Amino acid sequence: MVCPGSVFLESDKPDTPSEYSKWGTAAHTLAALCLTQPAEPEAYEGRILEGVEVDTEMVQCVRTYVNAIRLKAYGNDLMVEQRVEFSRFVDVPNQFGTADALILSANGEELDVDDLKGGRGVRVDAEDNEQMMLYALGSYDQFSAVADIKRVRMTIHQPRLDHVSVFETSTEHLLAFGQRAKVAAQKAIDILDTGIYDLSELVPGDKQCKFCKAKATCPKLRAHVEEVTLADFDATEPTQPPVAPTDATPPSDLAACMAAVDLVEGWCKAVRAETERRLLAGTPVSGWKLVQGKQGNRAWTDAKVAEETLKTMRIKHEEMYNYSVISPTDAEKLAKAKIIGPRQWPALQQIITRSAGKPSVAPESDKREALVLRTADDFETVDEGADLV
Fold first, then answer.
1. Reduced to 3 states, what is the DSSP secondary structure of residue 320?
2. Where are the alpha helices (DSSP H) in 98-197?
């Protein structure tokens, strides 16, 4: 909807799942199992789902989500991993998504659309979220024939960031969004069918470019990055680096540069990844080649043989082995396995600490509250020699 030309640019790019997406797929499978069967997430720890081992973090993530859904669904109708089709609204065939959880209230007047996000890198908000709105449209279309839906509530659950975002709207607002989606979809399909687009139909931005497969080859993004990064270059000296910000840099200039950082960094990573992909596939990239990277850490070919060999050398026991106390995470695993008893675990919990998150730069649109930091001006000046309490 934001960048209609991206559909065409992405059309010939391969889908390459990352370790993060694989982890998220496994978490969704685990959540669905727990919501459709009499099962709990803890029962699956250590098992393989979707090719990924269910670890403690996944169990905790899914547990938080499942508890929230069960609470909301009590006394209402719950549907899990429900296919929702919104083709009618965008006037394009075979347009659908899979809603993680749909909850229709007992009186048929309220519809909940819930989405589990397993990521911990980027906070996702539900307010006017295009994906959630499309899923809500499809859900509304599916149930409006049997229920008089007046309100739709969309919720994004992001347990690994301790983040829940809720957006409630009327069916009128939802249908108005559908009209905007139809216009955007038609523009994207026209470009896809003809292969002809105007640069104005490519719109770079943090949100739309983040997961775009065409990021490395997009002409508009490349031009935008050049404009941002080369703005301070002397035309006669193209190798001169841009001037780094200093204390004298005006706040407005620094703010403008900061707004482009994520986009530029993402573009750089995408260009590097695309170059590597082509070289690995045997496609030459002028001026670049593949070389052997840094060697990995040394390891024993057979740890047991190494252990026995070291023993024959009469090396002291404390010199042969490294010992360290297990982490709180590993201790919790022992508690869940009943190796650490239920009366013993609380004693360990009392001596567990967790450092607070470090201050992090975020845009003003971020939902988190801004930190208030004290400066020297916040302290009252004290006369030299005065008593301090």
1. helix
2. 130-143, 171-194
Other CB atoms within a 10 A radius of the CB of residue 42 amount to 14
Contact between residue 175 and residue 156 where contact means Cβ atoms under 8 Å apart = no
Radius of gyration of the chain from Cα atoms?
27
Query: 275 is written with which tokens?
Result: 């170059």
d(CA 217, CA 267): 9
Residues in the chain, how many?
A: 389
Tokens read off for 337: 């396995």
Provide CB contacts within 8 A for 236, sequence distance 6+: none
pLDDT averaged per 10 residues in sequence order, the chain, 389 residues? 91 84 94 94 94 93 96 95 93 93 94 93 89 95 90 95 94 94 93 88 87 87 79 48 62 76 84 85 87 83 91 86 87 87 92 84 78 64 48
CA end-to-end distance (rounded Å), the chain: 61
Give the integer Cα–Cα distance in Å for 83 and 98.
4
**The pLDDT value given to residue 346:** 92
Q: Cβ(73)–Cβ(99) under 8 Å? A: no
CA distance 130 to 118: 18
Determine the 3-state secondary structure of 38 from DSSP. coil
